[in-house]
Amino acid sequence: MSGNLEWNKIFGAGLATVFTILVVQQASGFVYQTKTPEKMGYAVDIPEEGAGGGAEAVLPPDWGTLIPVADLAAGEAAFARCQACHTINAGGANGIGPNLYGVIGRAVAGHAGFAYSDAMVAHRSEDPTWSLDAMDHFITAPARYVPGTKMSFAGLRDTETRVNLIAWMMTQGSSGYAVPAPDPARQPGAADAAVEGEVIVGGADTTGAPIEGAAGQSTVEATPAAPPAADSAPTGG
Ligand code: HEC
User: Which residue range is the domain that position 115 belongs to?
Assistant: First the structure.
């Protein structure tokens, strides 16, 4: 009899435990509503090349340094990707895309006889000229830089390929375009250099005048900050 009572207690305790677990599970189901996600799997946010990561990835190419040493043969080879739609010889015909002779420094949507998309025409009022930076942004991801463009080309994500290609394109009627001088703020490690620069400015300044240091710092900081600010406006959309 007493043995049975012991077993009753044990079963009772077990039942109580199970009951408690069930109640807690139900209650937590109300508190933490578990929705079935619309898309199964993890949303992996892969940063766009150049958009995230280290400071170097964000730096636009330092054209003044890179253009003179670019691999023109590689650039010409890369143009094979464009040739399905574009000619680039002087007076060349428009194809699916406009003739690209002298396109660096040329007006955006500016080639006579080609029916540009509304998006490209609208882009001209934002940024009227195919500068080196604009060209670089466009061919990196055309539809991202000019949303709605009818250039159906995914883009060239490799910076070296783009630099070589753009350097070669310059030889096709754009050699008069003034390449900007080498820009230390765009050179790899510019972010580190800026930090060192601040230290050197402070250290070299024997008077220790805070005005000198402040001026030096603001110059160092303003230089790398300016290009991305100017560039990010059209890219953002
Ligand atoms: C599938 C066809 C196609 C390919 C491939 C292609 N383009 Fe285009 N491209 C076009 C079209 C179409 C336009 C006109 C876009 C518009 O009006 O929106 C255009 C426009 C352009 C423009 C603007 C020209 C201007 O006068 O404003 C440039 C620059 C350009 N392409 C460069 C390139 C480069 C460089 C490549 C190769 C890396 C390339 N394209 C590959 C079809 C193509």
Answer: 55-183
